[in-house]
Design goal:
- By secondary structure, the protein is of the alpha/beta class.
- It is built from 11 helices and 14 strands.
- Helix 1 packs antiparallel against helix 7 and helix 2 packs parallel to helix 7.
């Protein structure tokens, strides 16, 4: 059997090892947060945000965003229908209701043309996702938010290092959330980041992410029910090294993206999505669809590739189809990506020969068999 072709995976160098060892040896007691502070400062400066809070995971950053904005039961949040369920659940955690709208099939991001029709007198915010290396149409979204006085949360968990029209994603709306989970371009195993330019939102998020601790009243006093969402110093050290190498990692991912587009160009059974023109991508993922010319189903392709030790992933399920949620509007493009979408392997240890091999196997499976 051919070697494992991993869906995702990091590029770890001696720098990461040295940072982690330093944290293990020296990051205790009075210096327990030395790498956390460095990470927050480095990341804020990198994306151009005034404030940053490093969290245990991206989901916690999203939850802190909904808390900071004061979202609550009875409120509605317009949410893209395509994402990992953490996006929706961050809204549910505070008791607010997700109102799902469909995606643009060429970017897999929320379709701004559908947002306005979803606005009601209960709508308080828009939760968009910069999906699979694609940036959402922030100009249109921010215009709608301004007209209706809505807050905007950018779920940028999949687009660390990406830009929309030369501005880093996560810094355009009111709050941005990022992830350093193991399948992301920069990793810590887990890890997240909350960013904002609003001091009041930052202070509220920081307060609720640290048990609502208030030492001004008494040492270790807690003045509300809060959460322990702070990242560990060791994890922060690993992420810090990765963030300091982010442009190098983006370059490696871009090579992988270009190899797929080179070797699958003439495969009529697969349509790969191109980066939208207003986006400066991090190229973290290569995504596409099965076309009508395919002789086999998407699920059959996934199974046969897995049998060959090639780890591909189907598209996310439509969130509005899941238990505890409801579908107010039809979402045909989200449904299509769920049933026909594919995520190809982009682990950072993959070479051009590896990608060439994956594409050869895809073509042979797709074009040589009948369902």
């Amino acid at each position: 059997m051919h070697k494992k072709i991993a869906l995702a995976g990091p590029d770890i160098t001696q720098k990461e090892v040295e940072y982690v060892v330093d944290a293990v040896k020296n990051g205790w007691y009075e210096t327990y947060d030395m790498h956390i502070k460095r990470l927050e400062k480095t990341f804020a400066e990198y994306v151009g945000a005034q404030y940053a809070i490093a969290t245990y995971c991206g989901t916690h950053a999203l939850h802190l965003a909904t808390i900071a904005l004061g979202l609550k039961e009875g409120d509605e949040v317009i949410v893209t229908d395509q994402s990992y369920i953490a996006t929706a659940q961050a809204v549910s955690y505070v008791g607010a209701k997700c109102v799902f709208v469909d995606i643009d099939p060429e970017t897999l991001c929320i379709d701004p043309a559908l947002i306005e029709n979803a606005v009601t007198d209960r709508t308080k915010a828009i939760m968009l996702v910069h999906f699979a290396g694609m940036a959402a149409d922030m100009d249109a979204i921010m215009q709608i938010a301004s007209r209706h006085r809505l807050k905007v949360i950018e779920d940028a968990c999949q687009l660390v290092g990406g830009k929309y029209k030369n501005q880093y994603v996560g810094t355009i709306g009111d709050i941005g959330a990022f992830s350093f989970q193991g399948a992301k371009i920069a990793v810590g195993g887990e890890g997240g980041m909350f960013v904002t330019n609003d001091e009041a939102l930052y202070k509220r998020a920081l307060h609720y992410g640290t048990f609502c601790r208030n030492d001004a009243i008494s040492y270790l006093w807690s003045d509300d029910v809060g959460y322990n969402y702070r990242i560990s110093n060791v994890t922060a050290a690993l992420i810090l090294a990765q963030v300091e190498r982010i442009e190098e990692l983006i370059h490696k991912k871009k090579n992988i993206y270009e190899w797929y587009h080179k070797y699958l160009t003439n495969c009529k059974s697969i349509k790969l999505l191109n980066i939208n023109q207003d986006c400066q991508s991090n190229y973290a993922y290569v995504v596409g669809y099965i076309t009508d010319e395919s002789k086999i189903s998407r699920d059959r392709l996934v199974k046969e590739l897995l049998d060959k030790n090639i780890f591909v992933r189907p598209g996310y399920p439509s969130m509005s189809a899941m238990p505890n949620y409801e579908r107010r509007f039809e979402v045909p493009f989200s449904e299509r990506y769920w049933k026909e979408g594919l995520v190809f392997p982009t682990a950072l240890n993959l070479s051009e020969e590896d990608i060439k091999y994956v594409c050869k196997e895809v073509k042979e499976i797709m074009e040589g068999k009948v369902l």
